[in-house]
Give the backbone structure.
Amino acid sequence: MAEREERTFIMVKPDGVHRSLVGEIMERFEQRGYKLVGLKMMTAPKELLEMHYHELRERPFFPKLMAYMGSGPLVAMVWEGMDVVAQGRAMLGATDPLKSAPGTIRGDFCQATGRNVCHGSDSKAAAAREIGLWFREQELSHYTNDQHAKWVYE
Ligand code: ADP
């Protein structure tokens, strides 16, 4: 990974999978010039979801969130590139889709906070924690995209 690049954890939630939005969401990151370095599909075990959303465990919607996130397969991804943590959040849009700008994933595809189709790490520290939670080091790829090096980065 080049010095100016960083990694973030992006997930297509079960509603995004059921609504066939996996390709659309991945395409947006690819088209922006970000590099896919980790990818897996699974129905997440309850323990993993509880660790992932540990900070929200006292919130009233937590049981509903656990049921939603465990309701079917999700797609977990790691994307790499310049400022990708903050840019990934911007591409997802606000947590509440009704407050998300058109042009963002949530602003284009969702209406309800409890069905907001995607997750993205909200800080570099969260990205490191979440990538470590969902992926083993050997499941992450290291490669140079020559096109990006020449045509995406200055
Ligand atoms: P984000 O996913 O944008 O980082 P949070 O970490 O605050 O947002 O919340 C995690 C997830 O919990 C949200 O994406 C959403 O699916 C769900 N959630 C948050 N707040 C609510 C709420 N008030 N009612 C139902 N679900 C919620």
Summary: Residues 64 and 105 are 22 Å apart (CA to CA). The pocket of adenosine-5'-diphosphate is lined by residues 56, 61, 65, 95, 113-114, 116, 119, 122 (CB under 6 Å). The chain has eight helices and four strands.
